[in-house]
Amino acid sequence: MRFSVSSGSGQVLASGRLLIQTEESGVQRLCFESDRGTFITGGEIAPDGDLTEAATELYREFFRAWGVMGITMTSIA
């Protein structure tokens, strides 16, 4: 799925895709890969498929990467 990631002021920080990365241990993580190659690893996806904690951790990693709070993700074609 493709997304743009924007700051609270509307500045587009990156465009890219969400993906699920499976580790050797079988743990799955929600990740974002930008069109420019930035790879941000989010949290673990719950065994029942719930993405709440994974998405929360991904947003924390967005803050660490760009230093911006109030990030919005918008689906793009």
Describe the structure.
With 77 residues, this protein is an alpha+beta fold. It has one domain. The protein is 19% helix and 43% strand. The chain contains one helix and five strands. A five-stranded antiparallel sheet has the order 4-3-2-1-5. The longest helix is centred in the last third of the chain and has 15 residues, at 52-66. The relative contact order is 0.26. The mean pLDDT is 94.
H/E series: EEEEHE
Count of DSSP H/I helices: 1
Indicate how many domains the architecture comprises: 1
Give start-end ranges of low-pLDDT stretches. Answer: none
Quaternary form: single chain
Strand content: 35-45%
Q: Major sheet: size, sense and barrel closure?
A: 5 strands, antiparallel
Overall shape: it is globular
Q: What do the pLDDT scores average to?
A: 94
| Radius of gyration, whole Å | 12 Å
Helical proportion, percent range: 10-25%
Distance from N terminus to C terminus (CA atoms, Å) equals 9 Å
> What is the strand tally?
5
